[in-house]
Design goal:
eight-stranded mixed sheet; Rossmann fold; alpha/beta; 7 helices
């Protein structure tokens, strides 16, 4: 009995630490070449489950030592514990790309290749056993958030079938989308840091205001005093330099955890995805 308890505790610790036992690595067919990905599944399900496709930021999904970083692993475990399957397609590693945060002219663009990646992930996940194909939503951070907004925009482009049910994005860059008259075809939640000097909250608010009366429901939440990466666990605010696309063009940005914003996001995101 004692040995069984120890093994059970070790299993729990493995899941909480984001080791390989908490997820599986998958391969996703794509028109632009096979994608790698990380998939979290909820435990003890009795029927088709809702799912989320989660798009990483410009820093990539993980490293050569670990396929998924701590922030994304924390979200994957939290959402899967809440009953969601969560698929993180990796837009960079399979293409031999590292962090793109300092690259101005990127080969993998948020409004082109990453849209195709999101659509490929949707097509693959919708066919997996135990997944509800009518309840797959899109989630994204930073560059992945911009890609998510571009993916669900109302446009002449053919929509995937089944389509995404909803979208949630955290601190996207909205400049190009504002200039191209963005609107959404699915309910969309946008979470922004009021002090974000990497991706401007004001630009995103203007984008949403410009889409009024010609968009599906869009809700914007701005967290006063929060910087970029406000949901990242245990990451004190710090200055980063050499960023390619900072809000003021200086390449200097602040990023780090905002406890109040993080706590609200952890509650608000699953509630939106359950709709």
């Amino acid at each position: 009995m004692r040995i069984l308890l120890i093994l059970a505790c070790l299993s729990c610790l493995c899941r909480l630490s984001g080791t390989a036992e908490a997820y599986e690595q998958v391969k996703i067919p794509s028109a632009n070449g096979e994608l790698t990905g990380v998939l979290y599944k909820p435990d003890k399900t009795t029927g088709p489950v809702p799912a989320v496709i989660a798009l990483h930021g410009c820093g990539g999904l993980g490293t050569h030592k670990k396929p998924i970083g701590a922030r994304f692993a924390a979200w994957g475990e939290r959402l899967s514990a809440g009953g969601f399957a969560v698929l993180f397609p990796d837009s960079f590693s399979g293409r031999s790309l590292g962090s793109q945060c300092s690259v101005k002219k990127r080969k993998i663009r948020a409004n082109r290749e990453r849209i195709a990646d999101a659509d490929s992930a949707l097509a693959w996940l919708a066919k997996q056993p135990g997944i509800d194909p009518q309840h797959i939503s899109l989630l994204g951070w930073s560059n992945g958030a911009t890609a998510a907004l571009a993916t669900v925009r109302s446009s002449p482009r053919p929509h995937p079938q089944p389509d995404f049910r909803s979208a949630v994005v955290l601190y996207p860059g909205c400049g190009l989308l504002l200039r191209s008259a963005w609107s959404s075809r699915v309910p969309t939640l946008i979470l922004l840091g009021g002090a974000d000097d990497w991706t401007s909250a004001r630009t995103c608010e203007a984008m949403v205001e410009n889409a009024r009366d010609r968009s599906a429901r869009v809700l914007v939440k701005v967290y006063p005093g929060a910087y970029h990466d406000f949901d990242r666990p245990k990451y004190p605010v710090r200055l980063r330099t050499g960023v390619a696309n900072s809000a003021n063009g200086s390449g200097r940005v602040h990023l780090g955890t905002n406890p109040a914003a993080r706590a609200d996001a952890l509650k608000r995101v699953p509630e939106w995805l359950k709709q």
